[in-house]
Design a protein that fits this description.
single chain; mainly alpha
Length: 344
């Protein structure tokens, strides 16, 4: 029962936080750490990361549903070269926007491949999430100051390839827990002079290839070794239910995000993130000077549902530990996890 509660709560959190500039990954990470401490059972970073990416697939469906009319009209302009489409939906305009999205996505690919192991380990660190929250808060404060002046003037037809590349570079911070993908990309777009509406639209547009890429990568691993991801029938059902919930809630979060950005109220979220990030870091420090020390003392008995005692062959087994806990007494050397980063 507790696993169903955790899964549905994570789906709800993902839906609310994916599009708001508060980092869904950071909120998922600290919630998963909290349940790990509560239950005395910690899943591997690989399991948590797979579950998080499936939740992102749910919110990806929310993007596609929200922009369903634009997608259909763009498809008519691109594939059928229809002449009765609105301005900006003809074949040339759609191709240009697609190429801009490709340029913005390109920096994320090498970043993900190079740092994927470290990123997965960071998902088990509450300190990493706390720092990420403060980074996002700083970005939002800067852009809130910028938004005091008039709205930007660049839209889909006038933004440059350099604009797209710089927004893409900002997006590379998104796989870090606590760093908001929407927050970083919208902030970069606004600072570069894009209109508020197009800043949101372009941020959501480039979320599509980022989420799809991470999902394909994880599904490939899941098909190779489902047992490594803990994909029991019950866990699959929990994942599907949480994914659907994330998509439904995410749709309404998109509507909220659009109103917030148009109203120039991003600084509200920076205040929230400063408070949350400070609280997370304080709790990490109180727990013993390492991000997961408090939980780890409870969890040293278990790892992915297995006892850390002596195996039948008399050898004491080691299990993966958080990145900034190089060695816990009696737990063996840290392991290196493999996987693909999620988006925020």
């Amino acid at each position: 029962m507790i696993e169903w509660l955790e899964s549905l709560l994570l789906g709800l959190i993902q839906g609310v936080t994916e599009f708001l500039p508060v980092s869904s990954d950071g909120h998922l990470a600290i919630t998963q750490q909290g349940f790990a401490w509560l239950t005395g059972h910690r899943r591997s970073g690989k399991e948590d990361l797979f579950f998080d990416i499936m939740l992102h697939v749910g919110t990806l469906c929310a993007i596609l549903f929200h922009y369903r009319r634009e997608i259909l009209e763009g498809a008519r302009g691109l594939l059928l070269d229809a002449k009765d489409v609105r301005p900006g939906f003809d074949r040339g305009a759609v191709l240009r926007v697609g190429l801009l999205a490709g340029v913005a996505t390109s920096p994320l690919v090498p970043f993900a491949l190079i740092f994927k192991k470290k990123l997965e380990e960071a998902f088990q660190s509450t300190t990493a999430a706390g720092v990420g929250f403060l980074i996002t808060a700083a970005a939002l404060l800067v852009v809130s100051w910028r938004m005091r002046s008039r709205d930007g003037s660049k839209d889909a037809t006038t933004m440059t390839w350099l604009d797209a590349l710089l927004i893409g570079i900002a997006q590379t911070a998104a796989p870090l827990p606590g760093v908001s993908r929407s927050g970083m990309t919208i902030a970069a777009a606004l600072l570069l002079g894009l209109t508020r509406s197009w800043s949101v639209g372009f941020s959501l547009l480039i979320a599509v290839p980022a989420i799809c890429g991470a999902a394909v990568f994880e599904l490939k691993d899941a098909l190779k070794d489902p047992s490594a991801l803990g994909l029991t029938p019950d866990r699959i059902a929990q994942t599907l239910a949480a994914t659907v919930l994330a998509g439904i809630v995410g749709y309404f979060a998109i509507l909220w995000l659009i109103r917030v950005v148009r109203g120039g109220r991003l600084w509200y979220f920076s205040v929230y993130l400063i408070g949350l990030g400070s609280l997370v870091l304080a709790l990490s420090a109180v727990s013993g000077g390492s991000p997961d020390a408090g939980a780890a003392k409870t969890l040293d008995r278990t790892a992915v549902g297995r006892d850390l005692g002596t195996d039948p062959d008399g050898i004491r087994r080691g299990y993966p530990l958080p990145l900034d806990r190089p060695h816990a007494p009696g737990s063996g050397p840290p392991g290196i996890l493999a996987g693909a980063p999620a988006t925020s």
